Amino acid sequence: MKIKMKLSFLKSLRFRVMVLLVIIGILPCIIAESVIVSSYENRAVELKNISVKNQCDILGKQLMKEEYLKYPQSEVINSELAMFSSVFSGRILVINRDGRIVKDTYDIDEGKYLLSEAVIKCFEGENTGYYDKDNSYIVQTVPLKNMINKQVEGVMLISISTSDIKDSIAILRHRANLLLLIICVFVLILGFVWSKTLVRPFARVGKAIEELTDGYLDEEISVPDYTETEMISSVFNKMLKKMKVLDDSRQEFVANVSHELKTPMTSIKVLADSLAGQEDVPVELYKEFMQDIAVEIDRENKIITDLLSLVKMDKKASELNIEKVNINELMENILKRLKPIADKKKVELVLESYRPIVAEIDEVKLSLALSNLVENGIKYNVEDGWVHVTLNADHKYFYVSVEDSGIGIPQESIDRIFERFYRVDKSHSREIGGTGLGLAITRNAIVMHRGAIKVKSEEHKGTTFSVRIPLNYIG
């Protein structure tokens, strides 16, 4: 449990904000420390180089003035060389033109020969020097030039210890690390407190959502601390409204299903009881009652069939049987099948196709959806009316428009016509055999095909349904 809580904290926004603050607060300090120490070391070495070179230049002139290369026994020069070596904690080698060491302040290599690359370059008139950071010393060469003809007659090779610089850097780094430690502790505490403060509004959002989800309350959450929390609150409030609508719709659907299924059953029972309660029922009355019972059974069967169709439509789109279908032929077959109903109602059916269309669809489900639209246009039409179906396409979608000259839909009902069991005119719907499920089935089938359906209508002037379906199905 503790491990799970730790993992949960490591994945939390608070932890990530805290880490970000620590990185922002500490990383620049580490970089600054490194830059300062490095800059100090470079500057200290540079100053020491300049100081040593100046002293060596002065000393070199004195050596040449006293002709030290010929007479290295000069006590004055030797004492100055010894003092210089002592002051700078270094070693001085004086080398003549033959490469022989005429003076070594350490008294180790006098009389030996030294022809290193640095010495040779110095004889050629090039001052050389370098800083050995690992071993903490500076090496410089100073040419000893003849006072008259300025020719290089010898070289002074100086090795100077930089242990004092190294010690200073160690002290500087120690103090910087101590300061960095203080900053780290401060940033950690600040990050812990600040991250808690920063994520607190999100915790309030979570708590508010948790309180609301215990039951669909009428209240809305509002956490306007940040733009993000305000956006989350707004989105959640919209979702809550939709959930309330869905819950109300579900309850209404259950009530409507119960009512729709109960009504025919009640009628059948009343008719059956009437027959059972009478003796010597005339054959004509018996036949009339049985016909009424058959009508009610047909009505019940139609409701159940539509409900089953709706349930199938509610299943996952993965159950669609997608295949390439000629949409022009599909629409022609639908209108051909519905023409007898249109002729009976004296409604003219017209199909207008602008181009050949082949699309990837579930033929059975989409046929049912489009048939419902055309059939509604026929049923809810006026005598000598018309239903105009147009078929068109572009590079991405095909479009079906079903326009009729029928009774139209009131403006207040347009937003609800796709709800299950919703009827604009219940008495008229029952009269023509409607169940209130046709448009719900149509919309579900179109949505399953990643399509869209829109409706425009005006009372007593007709209705237009516009359907858009992708030519290529994307699962």
UniProtKB/TrEMBL annotation:
Any one Gene Ontology cellular component term annotated for this protein: plasma membrane
Keyword Transmembrane belongs to the record: yes
Domain of life: Bacteria
CDD domains assigned to the protein according to its UniProt record, in alphabetical order: HATPase (cd00075), HisKA (cd00082)
InterPro entries assigned: BphY/WalK/GraS-like, HAMP_dom, HATPase_C_sf, HATPase_dom, His_kinase_dom, HisK_dim/P_dom, HisK_dim/P_sf, Sig_transdc_His_kin-like_C
Molecular function GO labels: phosphoprotein phosphatase activity; phosphorelay sensor kinase activity
Domain HAMP: 196-248
Compartments, record wording: Membrane
Top EC group: transferase
UniProt-listed GO biological process terms: cellular response to phosphate starvation
Catalytic activity: ATP + protein L-histidine = ADP + protein N-phospho-L-histidine
Domain Histidine kinase: residue ranges: 256-473
Residues annotated as transmembrane: 176-194
Keywords carried by this UniProt record: Kinase, Membrane, Phosphoprotein, Transferase, Transmembrane, Transmembrane helix, Two-component regulatory system
Keyword Membrane: yes
Listed SMART domains: HATPase_c (SM00387), HisKA (SM00388)
Assigned EC number: 2.7.13.3
SUPFAM superfamilies: ATPase domain of HSP90 chaperone/DNA topoisomerase II/histidine kinase (SSF55874), Homodimeric domain of signal transducing histidine kinase (SSF47384)
The protein's name: histidine kinase
Protein's organism: Blautia hansenii DSM 20583
